[in-house]
């Protein structure tokens, strides 16, 4: 009898457990899946728990392809619904609505979705990208002078000297036939590593000779958004409260310690020796000492030259300084190397575009008396170089989407007049890659055609449709630096080398499904040939 009672209680316990699980599943999964249906928003039914990104999570398709398919599916709507795991996201596909949200009504969408504990994850938690509200506004104002044209001119000599040295190294590694097959992402990571190390940290490195230096190896870890690291980055956006409650770090304590010591040691040496170097650390040192003032228009003035009064001066910690330099490194290391790798590929498989760009480079080089005389102003005047860079950014944007969080109530209105009320905390994406492959905005979108950005283009381009570096006040603060770096690198490369498709070149490129950012499935292999060597068959 006792055994029967125990069995009965166990069966009741089992039934209760099943009931609880069923209720949790219904309220968490089933009801959340009806989120957009209840609001009259177009959407694709999600896979339970994994959402609309299930094919990306299981490595069947790249997230860019998933968003592009949904973008093409909902042409009759200004926006549609997407489930990021269980989190509902409003995806805005109409360009006019994108401009309204990112520019005109920016105060409703100031913040990114990602939330990091700045004390537990100081590298990114205190970085400009992750900052929110007033703290972001203040930091953005302080950092903006580091990326003005005058600052670019001061750093330009550092960049060209590294480009010249890297070219000499590549030439020395070529075979007797004057050729070498190189992997572009690896090559441009080394370019970017050295350039950003000197411009952000004041550290001189040659990653073409010292191939295992700490900056380079930690940079690969910092920017690795494939596999587990990519999913972790998504999790910090999709489940910020859970990740913070679990006290998980986006990046390791080892990495945080390395970059903190580099920045602090550099500052200590400069203060002891009175060294002034025109780079980001110098600007941050000024800000920390409260030597930056704001005028009545919120523009920064130096304390010895301006008349504006002090206001909104921040109390800087060591981690505040380290974080800004590290994120600058992150952008220069990965975003620039990705853009450069795709640009090298497109030039190699589109020899007509490469020849036109080389002719422009040769003309400029002759007019200034050699590559060593290249200036920032001369590089900025190269129109076809600019067209090639813009077309690469359009076709292969480093970020599949822009993300925002609604900070105060906002109404989205569809083409048919249907309105949806957004509340504080609601997430929003702008499918940047899909917009820049929209045939209504860019005819023949899969074709690499730099001339579409030229003055004689038959189809005018809305500058707001180029979303690679974001749009509005929260756009990428380092975009000017990134473009300057890429253009300088290609000026020197095409001065010395012909880029050709080789036996390992994958064309057309297929995106690596495990990577959150775009990357070639089989790498970016390109054959370099010295310009004075005959072309191989």
TrEMBL record:
Which coarse location class applies to the principal site listed for this UniProt protein?
A: endoplasmic reticulum
Q: Which domain of life is it from?
A: Eukaryota
Q: Its membrane topology, per UniProt?
A: Peripheral membrane protein
The GO molecular function terms of this record are:
heme binding; iron ion binding; monooxygenase activity; oxidoreductase activity, acting on paired donors, with incorporation or reduction of molecular oxygen
* Tagged with keyword RNA-binding: no
User: Which compartments does it reside in?
Assistant: Endoplasmic reticulum membrane; Microsome membrane
What residues form the membrane-spanning segments?
6-29
User: What residues bind heme, as annotated?
Assistant: 476
Look up the record and name the cofactor or cofactors this protein needs.
Answer: heme
GO CC, sorted alphabetically, is: endoplasmic reticulum membrane
The record, for InterPro entries, names: Cyt_P450, Cyt_P450_CS, Cyt_P450_E_grp-I, Cyt_P450_sf, Insect_CytP450_Detox
Say which family it is in.
Belongs to the cytochrome P450 family.
What is the protein name stated in its UniProt record? Cytochrome P450
Look up and give the organism this protein is from: Anopheles funestus
